[in-house]
Structure formats: C-alpha cells, structure tokens
Amino acid sequence: MTLNFTEFRKRASRNINIDLSSYKTKRVKRRINSLMDKNDIKDYNECLDLLKTDKDFKKEFLDHFTINTSEFFRNPKNFNYLKEEVFPELFEHNNKVKIWSAACSDGSEPYTLAIILNELGINPRRFEILATDIDHQILKTAKKGIYNENSVKKTETAILNKYFTEQNDRYVLDPKIKNKVNFKQHNLLTDSYRSKWNLILCRNVFIYFTKETKKKITQKLSNALIKDGFLFLGNTEYLLKPDSYGLTKEYTSFYRR
Ligand SMILES: C[S@@+](CC[C@H](N)C(=O)[O-])C[C@H]1O[C@@H](n2cnc3c(N)ncnc32)[C@H](O)[C@@H]1O
C-alpha cells in the first residue's frame, strides 16, 4: 500500500513519539518533503522504513523538525518589563519564586532570566528556574552554555563582558549563571505539568502548533500558574480571549492568572 501524507504522519508520530498532527500540517509537510528531497527518498513508505531502521536518519528527521532558533534577550523590551515590573512584584509577594522556561531550546532564554535575577541582586535561594524542551540534543547544547555571536547580538556590551568569556569567536557563559538553571526533557503535548508556578515562559513554540493544540496548551499552562502568576509568550503569539483561560493581559506578551 502506498502511504499518503496523513497515514504517514500517523505512523511516523508513533515511531518518533511526537504527535505530528498537533503541529501545523503545511509546515510539517514542507519540512518532511524537503528532508525527503535532500535524501533522495522517493515516497512516504521509504521514509517510514528509514525512520524504523536507520538511527541516524531518525535523528536527522527530529533535528529537521524541531526549530531551535533562540537568543539571549530575545525581544529586549519584554525582558525589560520583566526586570522592571514583573520580578519586583513577584519577589515582593513570594519568599520563593518558581520559574519555568518551557520549550527553552539552547538555554539562551532561561540563562537570560538568571542573568537578570543576578543583576537585580536576588539571592539564588529565593528562586528556581526549570528549563525544558522536547529535544534531547538541544538540551545537551544548553547545558554546555557556549554560544556563537548570533546568540548574543541583543546582549548589552556590559552584560556580555560581565557574564561571558570570549574564546575563539565563541561566548562561554559564566558557570555561576549556568548553575542557576535546571534542564529537563519535557513534551508540552503529552507530559504532565507541575503546578504552582509564579512565572511560565512559553515563547515561539505556539507558532508551530495547530489552533486546537495552542488552545489546549494555553489552558494547561494557565492551570499550572499560581494565582497572580504570569505567563510570558512570544511577541507574535497573542491570546485573543485571555479571559477564557482565566488570564488577563498585563503588557505585550504578558498575561496574569
Ligand atoms: C523556536 S524555539 C523557541 C526557543 C525559546 N523559547 C525562544 O523563544 O527563544 C522552539 C522550541 O520548541 C521546542 N518544541 C517543539 N515542540 C515541543 C513540544 N511539544 N514540547 C516541548 N518543546 C517543544 C523545540 O525543540 C524548540 O527548541
């Protein structure tokens, strides 16, 4: 039987343990087709066989599918709001502030938080940063804490000089900052969520999900927040009706539970 795209997607999802139907169809199709072209794979049957039998191909398939683009201080205005408004409020009202960076990619995002908290002079015993991603490989990169110039292009020079050491065109993050973030693998679609977070960042991953998935995940994230906790989304990821998730909009990309 020749597999059509829908059937292939179903079977490939089982194989890679990621429900591909939760992601936007057009994008998934485009990325799979480009990978097939690149590897001279003639049809979905052959692609599925390779997924089942060739570990290297399976890895390439997963790498091709997850887009890990990130950078330190991505959308600086938002991180400024976090520093000036959100963190002061959270630390005024809570002895310990629990922060979850979901879909954290290479760690630039959670490490940005650790840098800001250090700049604010907050005692590390007063916060916890958990950073998660579905992608094993990118978590390994994150734990290394070594970046290229592109990752730090939005970082102010003073911060760059204070927290990074330059080695052969690479930027090595200060171990004191690295130690403040815990990394763990987590799939937003299938794994359970810890609750009572004061702040959750879930940025630039909704763009890949279908509308239904986005709604489901937003509700789960909202439920995982403590009252008066904040959800921080990507700049292009608006919630049209935040109140339907028990949230109110505070500022561009910030929603309060
Ligand atoms: C574009 S990056 C965003 C990184 C960072 N949050 C930022 O805004 O700079 C998207 C990340 O989402 C991750 N991702 C995709 N699907 C996921 C899922 N179901 N659960 C958790 N992470 C997922 C990818 O592995 C990738 O690292």
From TrEMBL:
> Listed GO molecular functions?
protein-glutamate O-methyltransferase activity
Q: Which GO terms describe its biological process?
A: methylation
Keyword S-adenosyl-L-methionine annotated: yes
What does the UniProt keyword field contain? Methyltransferase, S-adenosyl-L-methionine, Transferase
Name the catalysed reactions.
L-glutamyl-[protein] + S-adenosyl-L-methionine = [protein]-L-glutamate 5-O-methyl ester + S-adenosyl-L-homocysteine
Q: Which SMART domains match?
A: MeTrc
Write down the superkingdom of origin: Bacteria
The EC designation for this entry is 2.1.1.80
Q: What class of enzyme is it?
A: transferase
InterPro entries to which the protein is assigned, alphabetical:
Bact_Chemotaxis_MeTrfase (IPR050903), CheR_C (IPR022642), CheR_MeTrfase (IPR000780), CheR_N (IPR022641), CheR_N_sf (IPR036804), SAM-dependent_MTases_sf (IPR029063)
Q: Where is the CheR-type methyltransferase domain?
A: 1-257
Q: What is this protein called?
A: protein-glutamate O-methyltransferase
What is the source species? Acetohalobium arabaticum (strain ATCC 49924 / DSM 5501 / Z-7288)
